Amino acid sequence: MHYLIVPGYTGSGPDHWQTHLANTYAGFSRVVQDDWRKPDADVWTARLDETIRDIDDDVFLIGHSCGSVTVAQWAATHYDQRVVGAVLVAPADVDASRALPAIRPQGPLPQGALALKTHLVVSDNDPHLSLPRALTLARTWGSTVETIAGGGHLNSSSGFGQWDHIVTVIENQSGRRLETAVGRAYR
Q1: Cystine design at 114: which of 25, 75, 99, 150 (Cβ 3.0–4.6 Å)?
Q2: Dihedral angle sign, alpha carbons of residues 120, 61, 67, 156
Q3: How far apart are CA 79 and CA 17, in angstroms?
Q4: What are 122's strand-pairing partners?
Q5: Looking at the whole model, is its pTM more than 0.85?
Q6: What is the pLDDT of residues 55-95, one digit of tens each?
Q7: Domains of the chain by range and CATH?
């Protein structure tokens, strides 16, 4: 199985848990957008679709923030039976009136069930997604959901660099144990 990391707005820097995953475990790569500061639903989902099509294996998606939004938008508009599931961490509410102006062009969020098994990991104090909205999205998308108390946006600024719990979540959701890699560095 191939694990595809889908970073969000500004990408995932060297201290982000997504980067730690890619540098620690085998079978990981990441989607690379042309401009991490301009999330656009059409552009970002097209790049995700192109990246998936270039992988010659089953795929498991791991999104964060606007990357989670990209995965949800892709799952609502595309289908590839090789994509077996996704973990969506702290999807940004790009439709909220208080959303950062730079991420609003990525809207709208999907308004129906996703054609993909998804698991949301959210926080009860995320400045970019309220807990009630997170629970509504989980119901709407047909996702399972877990809440991390006091986790903020579940990013490196909130203290989520090397994050052992996400490894357990990915293993549980993908049904596979992650294997460590040797000699990986930040890409």
Answers
A1: 75
A2: positive
A3: 27
A4: 147
A5: yes
A6: 999 999 999 999 999 999 999 999 899 999 999 999 999 99
A7: 2-174 (3.40.50.1820)
